[in-house]
């Protein structure tokens, strides 16, 4: 290493790639157990792609463990009194609730890794991240929370996600004078189409349309006006007029069109989700279709489980580098089958809802009667709590 490279070298204890839900929640979980982390985000600010998401009971359990649930429950109301259903929240509000709990220098924006290397330094495993701006970051622990097309997952050797054969359009509708609709989720099914909306508050609704992919996928991405026209004139033309009215009130900046990707469950079960001091969380580990609304929920679970396993490895306020690999292995062991089940349940739930008359018969007479109730039990999952460790400047030795 020459003198210029040494000047651009940065040493960190824990580095998290990606400042999405998984990345920020993982950083917060580590902070709660006394371990500091640096979060690298390639964008120049918090990303709110997707506009909104539904948080089910398992997500609220995780948010309680992270100590931020109260920030959101004071703003957003659940759809059912029993608490078994989702609560739809702005994605940005969730990201900000997590980010506000982190030290101001935790997130480094406009920071994109371009390569990952590992070596041993003074008897400890070190990960070297080479950044796009030429900076070299040495990390004692690396957690990839960098999304569906994760660079860290690729380095670990996890098989790439596959296309589900379906795509989704999502958006946020705004009614300045109030939408006047009941606070309840509405869903509409047509041949090969599933659409719906969920109020966020008195003036905003989150809406979606899921459909079989077409050659238009690539040409539509990033063109909100054309996307809305396609939804109104084609995909949702048989939906009730109220849904079309919701779509017409969309904030164009929130409208997205994207293929639905997922990792084959057996690729996760038999794949390598950690190696030494490197692992993945969130969509980087278990991308799934949105049919059970569990993508963000599972990412929050990941954060708590990872934080708990690392926290339980602390000795005298420190975590020894020799125990990092064991902590990550326990985390992956705990998450692997859970995540594979969510992937499978999500895919199956979406598959049965979009098909012809034979699929409709299977869905109504078999799936909903005997299978679906077992699948939705996933929303009652308890990811556990974090160890009671006071915040500190704990270092990884």
Task: Describe the fold and architecture.
The protein is α+β, with helices and mostly antiparallel strands. It has helices spanning 3-7, 21-32, 57-66, 69-73, 91-99, 151-156, 216-220, 224-235, 241-248, 265-269, 295-311, 321-352, 357-375; strands at 9-17, 37-40, 52-55, 87-90, 107-108, 113-121, 124-131, 136-144, 162-174, 186-190, 193-199, 204-212, 256-262, 274-275, 278-280, 314-315, 318-319. It folds into two domains: 3-161 and 263-352, FAD/NAD(P)-binding domain, CATH 3.50.50.60; 167-259, D-Amino Acid Oxidase, Chain A, domain 2. The protein contains 13 helices and 17 strands. The strands form four sheets. Strands 1, 2, 5, 6, 7, 8, 14 and 15 form an eight-stranded mixed beta sheet that branches. Strands 10-11-12-9-13 form a five-stranded antiparallel beta sheet, covered by helices on one side. Strands 3-4 form a two-stranded antiparallel ribbon. One of its GO terms (molecular function) is monooxygenase activity.
Summarize the structure.
With 397 residues, this protein is of the alpha+beta class.
For the largest beta-sheet, the strand count, sense and barrel status come to: 8 strands, mixed
Helix content: 25-40%
What is the distance, rounded to the nearest whole angstrom, between the alpha carbons of the first and last residues? 23 Å
Number of domains: 2
| Class computed from helices, strands and strand pairing | alpha+beta
CATH homologous superfamily caption of the largest domain: FAD/NAD(P)-binding domain
Gross geometry: globular
CATH class of the largest domain: Alpha Beta
The Rg value, from CA coordinates, equals 22 Å
Q: Write down the secondary-structure element order.
A: HEHEEHHEHEEEEHEEEEHHHEHEEHEEHH
On the 0 to 100 scale, the average pLDDT is: 88
Low-confidence stretches: none
Count of DSSP strands: 17
Q: How many distinct helices?
A: 13
As a percent range, the share of strand residues is 15-25%
Oligomer: single chain
CATH architecture of the largest domain: 3-Layer(bba) Sandwich
CATH topology of the largest domain: FAD/NAD(P)-binding domain
Keywords: Monooxygenase, Oxidoreductase
Domain FAD dependent oxidoreductase: 13-64
GO molecular function: FAD binding; monooxygenase activity
Domain FAD-binding: 94-343
């Amino acid at each position: 290493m020459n003198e210029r490279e040494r000047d651009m070298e940065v040493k960190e204890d824990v580095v998290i790639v990606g400042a999405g839900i998984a990345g920020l929640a993982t950083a917060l979980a580590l902070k709660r157990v006394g371990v500091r982390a640096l979060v690298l985000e390639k964008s120049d600010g918090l990303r709110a792609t997707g506009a909104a998401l539904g948080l089910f009971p398992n997500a609220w359990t995780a948010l309680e463990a992270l100590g931020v649930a109260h920030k959101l429950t004071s703003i957003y109301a659940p759809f059912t009194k029993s608490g078994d259903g989702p609560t739809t929240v702005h994605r940005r509000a969730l990201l900000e609730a997590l980010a506000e709990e982190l030290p101001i220098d935790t997130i480094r924006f406009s920071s994109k890794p371009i390569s990952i290397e590992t070596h041993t330094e003074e008897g400890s495993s070190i990960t070297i991240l080479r950044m796009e701006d030429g900076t070299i970051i040495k990390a004692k622990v690396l957690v990839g929370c960098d999304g569906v097309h994760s660079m860290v997952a690729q380095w670990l050797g996890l098989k790439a996600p596959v296309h589900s054969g379906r795509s989704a359009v999502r958006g946020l509708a705004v009614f300045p004078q109030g939408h006047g609709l009941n606070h309840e989720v509405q869903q509409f099914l047509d041949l090969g189409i599933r659409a719906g909306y969920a109020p966020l508050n008195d003036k905003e609704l989150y809406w979606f349309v899921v459909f079989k992919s077409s050659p238009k996928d690539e040409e539509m991405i990033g063109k909100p006006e054309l996307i809305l026209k396609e939804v109104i004139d084609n995909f949702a033309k048989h939906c009730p007029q109220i849904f079309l009215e919701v779509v017409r009130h969309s904030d164009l900046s929130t409208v997205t069109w994207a293929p639905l990707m997922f990792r084959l469950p057996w690729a996760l079960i038999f794949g390598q989700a950690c190696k030494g001091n490197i692992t993945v969380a969130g969509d980087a580990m278990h991308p799934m279709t949105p049919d059970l609304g569990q993508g963000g929920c599972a990412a929050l679970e990941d954060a708590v489980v990872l934080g708990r396993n690392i926290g339980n490895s602390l000795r005298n306020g420190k975590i020894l580098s020799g125990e990092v690999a064991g902590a990550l292995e326990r985390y992956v062991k705990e998450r692997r089958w859970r995540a594979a089940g969510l992937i499978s349940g999500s895919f199956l739930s979406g598959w049965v809802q979009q098909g012809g008359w034979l699929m409709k018969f299977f869905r109504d007479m078999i799936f909903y009667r005997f299978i679906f109730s077992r699948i939705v039990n996933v929303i009652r999952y308890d990811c556990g709590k974090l160890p009671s460790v006071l915040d500190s400047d704990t270092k990884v030795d």
